[in-house]
């Protein structure tokens, strides 16, 4: 924990009845690096004010819209101004809000997907460099200590040359509504105007893809994908598989589904090398399974001296105590705090705007591959 003063934080969205807003606020509190000052908590100003009162915030720092937020905050002395803004609005607002904030000198922590298109994501990457601000994308699962241990072990060559990767993210939440025409028409994640180009791959498949590139350090060069909308009147994918080829010649799979009946949050990744394999499951995040040829399976856990520095700094409590999604997100906030302050931080401490660019390029390549008859489609670096 830093001994410096806390970073002044604002939020776009995340107000009353927002689950993801709660996750972000708790995560920001964990490392005691941030203090929530104000923001635009709801599209309905009255509801935003109610939320601010509930959190006992200064109502003068609760604004009706982002234009007012920017105008009023920039009018304040630099030592009082909100420094970083968390964007937790519906998908279609991520790009315009992040762009406006960056152009006005605010650091940004953004929910994924970063934007609706790869072109928009690349523009944000360019703008962050131009305006000298930090941008953290909350690919939350990269914050788990044992995912970071996995990354470190692969980078150290413990597995040998990577030859196979298999990542999946299965949920079943949409199954109860997708078979009813009226119900599915009312789901915002199936509305391209609000959700963007993709539902399943854009929402959860991109997490699995990000886990592959984050843990292995490999770049996906091309994909061959098959997506399923289940019904002709449903415009967006709810299930899909992408075969992947990586820059070291290896191949793998990214599988995602929101109609995997009764599945909850089944994200898992397995990486196989010439010397060993390694597996991790999000629903059992404290266990990392290490498999060497001809030897018993080893189960690695957080909080022990055998783990890497990146894993160690991501562990908050003693061994044997479960660390979950709030802790994982908290690690991303802690890494972002160092970047915001201009301090040094370990590679992999938080997903950057570049991971957002990679994710959008993956989504667009997958959509193109499936649309064009399941053909290999390149992903530009």
Question: Could you characterize the architecture of this molecule?
Answer:
InterPro entries: Gfo/Idh/MocA-like_OxRdtase_N, Gfo/Idh/MocA_oxidoreduct, GFO_IDH_MocA-like_dom, NAD(P)-bd_dom_sf. It holds the Pfam family GFO_IDH_MocA_C3. One of its GO terms (molecular function) is nucleotide binding. The chain is globular, with a radius of gyration of 21 Å. The protein is α/β, with parallel strands linked by helices and 381 residues long. Helix 5 runs antiparallel to helix 13. Helices cover 36% and strands 22% of the residues. It has two domains: 134 residues, NAD(P)-binding Rossmann-like Domain (Rossmann fold, 3-Layer(aba) Sandwich), CATH 3.40.50.720; 191 residues, Dihydrodipicolinate Reductase, domain 2, CATH 3.30.360.10. The protein starts with 6 loop residues before the first strand and ends with a strand. Strand 8 and strand 9 form a beta hairpin. Strands 13-12-11-10-6-9-8-7-14 form a nine-stranded mixed beta sheet. Strands 2-1-3-4-5 form a five-stranded parallel beta sheet, with helices on both faces.
Tell me the fraction of residues in β-strands, as a range. 15-25%
| CATH homologous superfamily identity of the largest domain | Dihydrodipicolinate Reductase, domain 2
Shape: globular
Count all strands and give the number: 14
């Amino acid at each position: 924990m830093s001994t410096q003063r806390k970073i002044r934080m604002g939020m776009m969205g995340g107000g009353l009845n927002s689950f993801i807003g709660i996750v972000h606020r708790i995560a920001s509190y964990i490392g005691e690096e941030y203090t929530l000052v104000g923001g635009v908590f709801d599209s309905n100003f009255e509801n935003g004010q109610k939320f601010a009162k509930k959190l006992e915030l200064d109502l003068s720092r609760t604004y009706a819209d982002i234009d007012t937020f920017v105008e009023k905050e920039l009018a304040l002395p630099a030592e009082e101004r909100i420094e970083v803004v968390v964007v937790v609005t519906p998908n279609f607002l991520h790009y315009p809000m992040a762009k406006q904030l960056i152009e006005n000198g605010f650091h940004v922590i953004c929910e994924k997907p970063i934007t609706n298109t790869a072109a928009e994501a690349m523009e944000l990457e360019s703008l962050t460099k131009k305006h000298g601000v930090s941008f953290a994308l909350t690919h939350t699962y990269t914050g788990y200590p044992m995912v970071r241990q996995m990354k470190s072990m692969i980078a150290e060559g413990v597995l040998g040359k990577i030859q196979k990767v298999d990542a999946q993210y299965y949920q079943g939440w949409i199954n109860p509504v997708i078979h009813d025409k009226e119900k599915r028409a009312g789901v915002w994640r199936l509305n391209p105007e609000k959700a963007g180009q993709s539902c399943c791959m854009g929402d959860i498949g991109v997490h699995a893809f990000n886990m592959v590139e984050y843990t292995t350090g490999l770049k996906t060069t091309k994909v061959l994908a098959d997506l399923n909308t289940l019904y002709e009147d449903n415009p967006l994918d709810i299930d899909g598989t992408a075969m992947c080829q990586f820059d070291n010649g290896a191949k793998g799979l990214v599988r995602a589904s929101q109609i995997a009946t009764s599945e909850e949050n089944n994200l898992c990744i397995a990486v196989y090398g010439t010397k060993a394999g390694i597996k991790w499951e999000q629903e059992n995040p404290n266990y990392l399974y290490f498999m060497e040829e001809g030897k018993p399976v080893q189960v690695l856990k957080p909080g022990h001296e055998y783990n890497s520095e990146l894993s160690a700094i991501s562990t908050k409590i003693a061994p044997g105590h479960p660390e979950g999604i709030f802790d994982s997100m908290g690690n991303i906030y802690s890494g972002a705090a160092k970047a915001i302050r201009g301090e040094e931080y370990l590679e992999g401490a938080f997903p950057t705007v570049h991971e957002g660019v990679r994710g959008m390029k993956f989504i667009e390549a997958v959509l193109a591959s499936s649309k064009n008859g399941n053909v290999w489609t390149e992903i530009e670096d």
